[in-house]
Specification:
heterodimer, A: about 280 residues, two-stranded antiparallel sheet, 9 helices, B: about 350 residues, Rossmann fold, 5-stranded mixed β-sheet, 14 strands
Chain lengths: ~280, ~350
């Protein structure tokens, strides 16, 4: 698991690099879901540089842990992680969202190495993950399926069909990660369908549920370790409370962050602030 | 016994004025076997074909959304319990999970009723299965008007919906012979397929024709000089019987069976339609909107074949509930109604 930036790097350095890659891609298009990418960077750093088994030169290696991105619009975040992991070359940052690029604005399996499923129509990823987890068990393949979904996606009924089924089939090889940033297209998730505490809902459905600060690397590492090592034959979920635009102060301060507008000169400002935060 | 008759026609809940009286037929069970019309039947041809296939194909798995018994998948589940997945009453999950199994190298057969797959699960089939061209086989009972339970269960527009989906193969088999053959064919095809299912006791129609299903091919079952019927599904059985009836009056009716709705066998259809100025009639157990009729019409028009073309099918409407024989007569898809309609068109 040595990535593009070399070995022996700390998770903080990995998260920093993922944020930098995402900012550079955001600058290419001058817009986008940069808020989500900055928010979820720590979770991706733990996924790709602590938890998951994979081979950067062979993204379809049968023994790999599968990472399913339900939320297609988070593609910018996953590309940033795949680049840092060495699965995608850094040069492709400049092609993000361009004609003929392998990095389209919404994640699709047929376009990008390491993009396991076509996301974007929300409420699909966890169901596909259930099928794949059943398939891995049939093959006696010990790999895990990770599924990154969003808080807003919990409003899709099909997500809960999959939640019930994962318990029914004792899918202890399935780890759902919910990026809870309380922002969806029309405003706060909490003002729409997400009512009440999150972890108890999943627990009631039979899942091993943890809720953590998704921007606290130590807490995320501990949660991933606990999820992988939990002894009960049940599916696992980690609800990660994250901060949109995490790490770039003037973007964090914005009220509407689901799809943010960043002026041309602000990208340089954001990258400069980010450069100043580079972990040693 | 006189049964009070009420109808939803006219003003709401108005008592039916022309009651059927003692002619009224009871609504059959939701998923009773179709009338085989004097033919031999085969029990659960899909379930048995899948069991046969599974002997040499360890990649084949079965999934259902609480309708395995009603799609003959229980035969497979009994033979291979460890390869059967009960997904519960959750059609979105059924399709997504089938996609996930396909990603891991399996060939899933996912079954439910046609209405639930085509309507409720469309987005899941489109994005998780068809967009990625995964080899998931969607096999659905109650196609067209094969239940009297009303629009909630009558899949009158399923082929229109599935035809519109890129990458999807769409098959409307006629009988037990074809259900079994097509099951093998779609298992060998490396991509997504939607097959309409006849289940329970299924008529053997094509056995006497030395028939062999080929994906994407239409087959001439009967020659005739006056009318060319292009048909799919159970309407081929009806068309053959109507042709037999009209032959006694010296009217020659050819029957071209086109079970693959997509990709359509344009070559055979064009070649047959170009022959000797026959009236061309498309017959399908489906809405006249978006099914085989539209597919054939487009094929003829865009290839400059301008022949008289008529459609026999279900109206573009939510159909009535009732007993199947009554409904088939009401909507003009019985052998007698087809024969009468052909005579009428020929007399014009």
């Amino acid at each position: 698991m040595t990535g593009a930036s070399g070995g022996n790097m700390s998770l903080a350095q990995r998260a920093w690099a993922i944020r930098r890659n995402a900012l550079l891609m955001g600058e290419v298009q001058g817009q986008g879901y940069i808020g989500q990418a900055l928010g979820v960077a720590d979770v991706l750093a733990v996924s790709y540089f602590h938890a998951m088994r994979y081979r950067a030169t062979d993204p379809e290696w049968e023994g790999r842990d599968r990472f399913y991105l339900s939320i297609g619009h988070y593609a910018i975040a996953l590309y940033a992680a795949l680049i840092e992991a060495g699965i995608l070359p850094e040069e492709e940052i400049a092609t993000y969202g361009m004609d003929d690029s392998r990095l389209p604005m919404s994640g699709m399996a047929s376009y990008t190495p390491g993009m396991e499923i076509t996301g974007g129509s929300l409420g699909h990823g966890l169901g596909i993950a259930v099928g794949a987890a059943l398939g891995l068990k049939r093959k006696k393949n010990p790999a895990f399926i990770y599924n990154l979904l969003s808080d807003g996606e919990l409003g899709e009924g099909s997500t809960w069909e999959a939640v019930m089924s994962a318990t029914q089939w004792h899918l202890d090889n399935l780890i759902a990660i919910v990026d809870f940033n309380n922002q969806q297209a029309d405003g706060p998730v909490r003002a729409a369908l997400a009512q009440g505490p999150e972890a108890p809902k999943w627990q009631a459905f039979g899942w091993f549920a943890q809720e953590v600060d998704g921007n606290d690397l130590d807490a995320v590492v501990a949660a991933f370790d606990a999820a992988r090592n939990h002894p009960a034959p049940c599916p696992r979920v980690i609800i990660c409370n994250t901060k949109m635009c995490r790490g770039i102060s003037f973007l964090e301060a914005r009220e509407k962050t689901h799809f943010i507008r960043v002026e041309a000169d602000e990208w340089a400002k954001a990258l400069a602030e980010h450069e100043g935060k580079k972990p040693r | 016994m006189t049964v009070p008759q009420y109808s939803r026609r006219g003003s709401k809940y108005e008592p039916r004025t022309a009651a059927r009286g003692t002619d009224a037929v009871r609504t059959s069970a939701m998923i009773a076997s179709l009338d085989a019309e004097g033919r031999d039947t085969v029990s659960a041809p899909f379930g048995h074909a899948l069991v046969e296939l599974a002997k040499t194909r360890p990649d084949i798995v079965g999934l259902s959304a609480d309708l395995s018994k009603y799609t003959d998948l229980h035969i497979f589940a009994q033979a291979y319990p460890e390869r059967f997945y009960q997904m519960g009453m959750a059609e979105g999950l059924l399709m997504s999970a089938a996609a996930g199994l396909a990603r891991e190298g399996f060939t899933p057969f996912a079954t439910t009723y046609a209405v639930f797959a085509a309507r409720r699960a469309y987005d899941f089939i489109a994005m998780a299965i068809a967009e990625e061209n995964l080899p998931v086989k969607i096999v659905c009972a109650l196609p067209g008007l094969t239940t009297g339970y009303g629009p909630s269960h009558q899949a009158t527009e399923d082929m229109a919906i599935m035809r519109a989906m890129p990458n999807m193969v769409v098959i409307d088999p006629c009988d037990a012979v074809e259900v079994a053959q097509a099951t093998h064919a779609i298992a060998s095809y490396n991509g997504p397929a939607y097959m309409r299912l006849l289940r329970g006791q299924v008529a053997n129609v094509l056995g006497v024709y030395n028939y062999n299903f080929e994906l994407g091919r239409a087959k001439m079952l009967r020659e005739g000089e006056d009318v060319l019927i292009i048909s799919s599904g159970i309407m081929t059985m009806r068309a053959l019987d109507a042709a037999q009836a009209l032959a006694q009056d010296g009217i020659g009716v050819a029957v071209l069976h086109s079970p693959t709705i997509k990709p359509l066998d344009q070559e055979t259809i064009l070649a047959q339609a170009r022959k000797n100025g026959r009236l061309v009639v498309v017959a399908e157990n489906h809405s006249i909107t978006g099914g085989l009729g539209d597919a054939v019409a487009k094929t003829l028009m865009t290839n400059d074949v301008f022949v008289p073309l008529r459609q026999i099918g279900l109206p573009d409407a939510f159909l009535d509930a009732g007993a199947l024989p009554t409904l088939h007569d009401q909507y003009g898809i019985t052998v007698e109604r087809i024969a009468a309609q052909l005579r009428c068109w020929l007399d014009q």
